[in-house]
Amino acid sequence: MRLILYIVRRLLILIPTLLGVTIITFTLSHAFGPNLAIAVYCTPKLGACDINNPFLQPIVQQFHLRDPIPVQYVFYMQGLLTGDWGFTTSAIKGGMPVTQAISIFFPQTVELAITATVFATLVGIPTGTVSALRKDKLPDHATRIFALIGYSIPFFWLALLLQILAISLVPGWEITGGYSPSSISPSTEPWAFVDLGGTYQLFSQPTHFLVLDAALHGSWAVFLDALKHLVLPTATLTIGILGVVLRMVRSGMVDSMNQDYVRTAWAKGLPDWVVTRTHIRRNALLPAATVIGLLFAGLLGGVVLVEDVFAWPGIGYWATQAVLQFDAGGVMGTTLIFAIFLVLINLAADVIYAYLDPRISL
User: Would you identify the CATH topology of the domain 96-356?
Assistant: First the structure.
């Protein structure tokens, strides 16, 4: 019951946080004049995004775009709550509703973040364990140096470095995008395409995870191609967060090994592997679990530059294009999504921590 009340309290805190995000992004986007404000609700079919465009007057009246900014904000929030987040005007998805663009781009970012987090966890926990058990010896020194280098290198610089290495070592490796258009065609993979009036566009239904959708459809050519494009951005993010996981696991285990209950377990003659697994590593994973959750949340925001370098079709790449092209609808939509998931994942990390350690007061 206490855990449920804790979750409810944290969810209530989500409301003012998101209100603050919407106020800041709305005010900044509307500070550049009414034409940029109306671009949130404008599509190419309606002509120029000009507040004096006669075709746009119903939109001007509906959202009160000639009124003061506080009044416009009230009607903007009304649209958000009813599912009308406006339109994106950036070239990659120009004229598409923001909610639809989010449903296409965001799964690609989640796919990238999940893959990197899983690999960092699978490698970081055992490596951190070995580092702690071999404290101040060669494996420990090597691990600590790698961890220091890993989280000191900026994501975008590491992404560029891996691109150069991939081109040098594997000529012909396509290092950008989420798939190779030349190897996937509507005639061979009809499930992956939607007909847009005679032109075809990749549309990875039903999950928008291209790797997963290809596997579900048994299209192994698409699966391998998408997996190939996933390698470099995943490696970039994995190396970037692996150092943090290593350091957290190592420091937690070193601290646990100095506790009285661990020395008592060894004094009783318990095997080293039992003491390590049951008494040391289990307690060391408590702070690591929270950090891994925060790292995953951070990837959803920090992945922006990595997606831009690799032209990965995720929400970060869309956010970059929206900023460069003054796409107010895209900027506000992506910022709000990042804020929502950051708060929710922080909540999930705290709940997991409390579940693993009942001593924590909620």
Answer: MetI-like fold (1.10.3720)
